[in-house]
Write a structure and sequence with these properties.
The protein has one domain. By secondary structure, the protein is mainly α.
Amino acid sequence: MNGPNAMMAPFVRLRALAETRVVEGAVLLLTRLTLAGVFWRAGRSKVVEGSWLTISDSTWYLFQEEYAGMPIPAWIGAPMATYVEHLLPILLVLGLATRLSALALFGMTMMIQIFVYPEAWWQTHALWVVMALALVTRGGGVLSVDRLIFRHR
């Protein structure tokens, strides 16, 4: 085999490999872990060190002062953000309710973008949005609990 077809053969094989369900599943797993890690660390920064879910004084202050532009009062926003940033990353790591969890994190990211840090789009939020939307559209992949639950459908 000579000519252009011979030169394209490695790329055709690479494309075929990249399109397999296992490779897609591994990429989606990496995406789930990465997005989960971002929000898990944010959730942990909101609680008293050494506690599981005790909201810190600094978190209350941030929601009352720096995040005052949010359309949710601080007494609702601080606990909601703290609990969501703990629960949804766990679900993402497991690949359980992946689409719903990613959609909620997309919404949370947009709230942060619009009402808290509008200057952070290109540095941070665009990446979070892309990861969340990839999971909303593709799901958790073959390496997820979602797949185990819904494999017969």
